[in-house]
Amino acid sequence: MAITNIPSEIEIVDGNVDTVLGRMTNTRAGYLDNLTNLDAAITTAVTAGNNASTVAAAATTAGNNASAAGVAATTAGNNASAIASTANVNAIAATQIPPNFVTFTVSGVVSGEDYVLVTNDSSSDIDYDQLTSSVTETSSGATTITVNEAIPADTPATGTGTNSAIRVLLDNGIYKKIVYESWSGSTFTIPATDFSGVGEGITSGANVFIAYIDTAADATSESFTTKYNADRTLFVRVRDGGGSPIKTFESPSSLGSAGGAATAIRTSDA
Predict the structure, then answer these.
(1) What is the per-residue pLDDT across 238-253, written as a single tens digit (0 to 9) for each?
(2) Distance (Å, rounded) from C-alpha 178 to C-alpha 170?
(3) Is the pTM of this model over 0.70?
(4) CA 259, CA 102: separation in Å to the nearest integer?
(5) Sign of the torsion angle spanned by Cα atoms 143, 157, 125, 147
(6) Is 152 exposed, middle or buried, given 0-12, 13-18 or 19+ CB atoms closer than 10 A?
């Protein structure tokens, strides 16, 4: 076939080439955009994956920490239980010993006849200077007697309404009976007592002794009760003040952890 219009044909080919080149350029641009987007997506995915890993690790760490905290709490609870258990054991193991109250009884006496006196023993006699006054007392309404020594721990708690009292040596040489109301340390609390009379005062250093029983018998026996502290040797004296006289009965006797007793022997003194 003969080519009659070569320039026109060339122009057509050039136009087609331009069209193809344009399409290829657009395709390349789109491809590059897709690659860029793909890179961004991959980067995002990687970042998200890393973050997910970080979160997962953090969650694992938190879980481990929670587990550790749980273990610590359990341990603390066990320790608290152990401490409480130990405290209970200690509380139970600490033996509480109640006071040992003991009674000393003098029997063989006659109501309305005999007078019973029980004191601390000193060589088979009254322990006159068992205690000594720490003050001089001449008032008309004294309410305390204070001594130089500590009052013995086994002194009956009160003399009021019981057979116990103290005897105090007055300036006139008489041992005055005083039923005390209570005692603490080195002081006896007493009802208001008059020491203002002539010779009826107390001089500092005067003898004072505890009369564990100091009473006229109103039954066939007389007794006192006190808190046991240590064995004590007592001196017992029974005299007849009635119409059937007896010789004075005197004897040492013992007060121990189970108490004690003495029986007066009534020997006629007619």
Answers:
(1) 998 677 789 999 999 9
(2) 12
(3) no
(4) 5
(5) negative
(6) middle
